[in-house]
């Protein structure tokens, strides 16, 4: 993680932890393990890992300061960018409690400081910034977006909010050309979307909605129609997840981005629209939207590359969305093959996403009358989601377990319900 997300070389890790570089490389590949208390404590202190994360007592150095000696930035409400736009004003308070604070502070510190790139280019703040500074922030935003592949919103929320806060600070305190300002606003929109997604994943729907709205306004002000459309798609997805119809918002997201948006953007927005239709029970419209997403992906060769924030949309992602839609529409004969195929080689390291997708597969099996198989699948989902910093897998597992209750007479079902204390 230190190398992948922080950009720290094996040589630096070796020096800090007093382990030969070759040994560090092997450990990073999962070959061998560290078993002595002394060495575990040494690594913990060298890399500033809070003691509770590795079963140790709080380390002597644990405080509100980062490994470099800098105090972690305190997020303040009401950060105002230079646009003086009321829609981008008042980001609201950001309250965290308990051990999650320490974990997220550690992430912010280790990723944002130890990795050699502070929360913003420090040489840029308070002076005139140009295209190279913006490119630096864009690359950093793209790298940090990858955290969402392996961590839940409860773990990434502080990191993404801190990134957004510092970019807003650049907007407020720096001088730049009009074109640079638009690009910065585009970065604000991306970061607000990511921060909103982390809040959504952590269960804070009010904060997520506010951030999506601000992302939409920033993208619109930046003149980026694709990014503005994606903000609406995020809003639609949240609406659907909170039992509100998101069809109109999802349709607006596609219209906002327009037919000239990059292929991966069109595919992303159409699949989100398909999901909104499926949740509304509109099978024909959902199928049509999926077909439009497929058409965009199939025909993308020769088109200009899409933005980094849409690069994760591929044929497997679309296959999973198909399965999810057919599950919601209670069409298990279509849902099960689509989900089974897509999840066949889905790596367990993506624990949150895989556990979520398995819950839809479990529902599809139960709709098909395969109670025992659905029980096996939901058991795998529950195992995967243990310790994941997201409220969604647990919420969906609970929803499914309630459906299983009438089948308690079956031994596997009874065992699973007892395990879940239901």
What would you say this structure looks like, in words?
The protein is mostly helical and 422 residues long. Helix content is 63%, strand content 0%.
Whole-number radius of gyration?
Answer: 23 Å
Strand content: under 5%
SSE arrangement, N to C: HHHHHHHHHHHHHHHHHHH
Question: How helix-rich are the residues, as a percent range?
Answer: 55-70%
Q: Structural class given helices, strands, pairing?
A: mainly alpha
Unreliable stretches (pLDDT < 50, length at least 5) are: 64-84, 89-125
Mean pLDDT: 84
Terminal CA distance reads: 37 Å
Shape: globular
Count of helical stretches: 19
- Strand tally is 0
The major β-sheet equals: none
List the SSEs and their pairings:
Layout: H1 2-6, H2 10-17, H3 21-28, H4 37-46, H5 99-114, H6 131-145, H7 153-173, H8 178-202, H9 205-222, H10 225-241, H11 247-257, H12 263-279, H13 283-298, H14 315-328, H15 332-343, H16 351-367, H17 371-385, H18 392-404, H19 411-419
Helix pairs in contact: 2-3, 5-7, 6-8, 7-8, 8-9, 8-10, 9-10, 10-11, 10-12, 11-12, 12-13, 12-14, 13-14, 14-15, 14-16, 15-16, 16-17, 16-18, 17-18
